[in-house]
Automatic annotation (TrEMBL):
Amino acids binding [4Fe-4S] cluster: 132, 136, 139
Organism: Phytohabitans kaempferiae
Entry protein name: Probable dual-specificity RNA methyltransferase RlmN
Catalysed reactions, as listed in the record: adenosine(2503) in 23S rRNA + 2 reduced [2Fe-2S]-[ferredoxin] + 2 S-adenosyl-L-methionine = 2-methyladenosine(2503) in 23S rRNA + 5'-deoxyadenosine + L-methionine + 2 oxidized [2Fe-2S]-[ferredoxin] + S-adenosyl-L-homocysteine; adenosine(37) in tRNA + 2 reduced [2Fe-2S]-[ferredoxin] + 2 S-adenosyl-L-methionine = 2-methyladenosine(37) in tRNA + 5'-deoxyadenosine + L-methionine + 2 oxidized [2Fe-2S]-[ferredoxin] + S-adenosyl-L-homocysteine
Source taxonomy: Bacteria, Bacillati, Actinomycetota, Actinomycetes, Micromonosporales
UniProt entry tagged with the keyword Methyltransferase: yes
Length: 377
């Protein structure tokens, strides 16, 4: 069996064992919640009532759970619905259609989530780890290192909270119901495999067990952890797999995505095609356009040859530079030529909508700025 790579901890996390977050109903399936409620001396159906409030009505305040006896309300909420995310900063741009939240977890760790409203859908981008151990040099999160994995409930709670924001009507011009979730926030989702898969199942289970999203509207990203990609293909899920490729050749990808030193481009793509074959789902190939680094015409041609005829779509990402970084976005004419060459090769290609630039929209920027502010820098 191939083991996953050992990833570095951030300086703040090195030398200490992360404290576990409090247990939450989103950590458990409905049967597990019923068992816990019974341990508290309450009827098992109270678990369904609590779950309906949390997943169905997006309610957290015990005082609003009026179908529960007043004597039980606080105790049940404390046991099954502890506060996992404390808002630190919430920012909006794009006329309120993009809203970014920075959360502090129970141990002081910081994570980010983004809500994006469109005329036909509402999408949230959520984090699966505090920090990231993949060390991609152009990514603010990767430069911070890994603090710890998030629990299933810490992952799910980001989506539920922002679903409540959407339901409040705060995102003008968009539907009031969350419909899409992308695991493209802080962290490498497949490095927190079991909790991410549990979170997907919770998000997609019908209410009151879960949030009731379509699996086809959930995207799980990876930099290319091949054993985990192959494992995901066997889960019986129909989520979209997004592969953060960023270079079609091993020489450059070894630098941009260090895990490529373990699993090369050919092996990563082979695992992606296995996922597509077994699930029937088109793989989204993510490619950050970095000026004079990976945007040459010959690299577009090579990428086109690798993907031609495959069940794949290229999502080109205009790089959102981090402060002080040597990495910058490709000029628009270069980007257009890259797109032209890929499409000429028969590869479906789009350029990602650039959302949230004025609110530190790139993953990890808001957390980095908060940490720097706290340190007095």
């Amino acid at each position: 069996m191939t083991s996953l790579p050992v990833v570095p901890l951030s300086p703040a996390a090195a030398g200490r064992r992360p404290a576990l977050p409090p247990r939450h109903l989103a950590d458990l399936d409905l049967a597990g919640r019923q068992a816990l409620v019974a341990e508290l001396g309450e009827p098992a159906f109270r678990a369904k009532q609590l779950s309906t409030h949390y997943f169905g009505r997006l309610v957290r305040d015990p005082e609003r759970m009026t179908d529960l006896p007043a004597a039980s309300r606080e105790r049940l909420a404390d046991a099954l619905m502890p506060q996992l995310l404390t808002p630190v900063r919430e920012m909006a741009c794009d006329d309120g259609a993009t809203r970014k939240a920075l959360w502090r977890l129970h141990d002081g760790s910081l994570v980010e989530s983004v809500l994006m409203g469109y005329p036909d859908r509402v999408t949230v981008c959520i984090s699966s780890q505090a920090g990231c151990g993949m060390a991609c040099p152009f990514c603010a999160t990767g430069q911070a290192g890994l603090t710890r994995n998030l629990s299933t409930a810490e992952i799910v709670d980001q989506a539920v909270y922002l679903a409540g924001v959407a339901a409040s009507g705060a995102v003008a011009g968009s539907p009031p119901r969350l419909s899409h979730v992308v695991f493209m926030g802080m962290g490498e989702p497949l490095a927190n495999y079991s909790r991410v898969v549990d979170a997907v199942r919770r998000l997609c289970a019908p209410a009151p067990e879960g949030l009731g999203l379509s699996q086809r509207h959930v995207t799980v990203s990876t930099v290319g952890l091949v054993p985990a990609m192959r494992r995901l293909a066997g889960e019986g899920l129909s989520v979209t797999l997004a592969l953060s490729l960023h270079a079609p050749d091993d020489e450059l990808r070894d630098e941009l995505v260090p895990v490529n030193q373990r699993w090369k481009v050919a092996e990563v793509l082979d695992a992606a095609w296995d996922y597509a074959s077994r699930t029937g789902r088109r793989v989204s190939v993510e490619y950050a356009m970095i000026r004079d680094v990976n945007d040459q015409p010959w690299r577009a041609d090579l990428l086109g040859r690798l993907l031609a005829g495959r069940l794949a779509h290229v999502n080109l990402i205009p790089l959102n530079p981090t402060p002080g970084s040597r990495w910058d976005a490709s000029p628009k004419p270069v980007e257009r030529e890259f797109v032209r060459r890929l499409r000429e090769a028969g590869v479906s290609t789009t350029v990602r909508d650039t959302r949230g630039r004025e609110i530190d929209g790139a993953c990890g920027q808001l957390a980095a700025s908060e940490t720097a502010s706290a340190d007095g820098r």
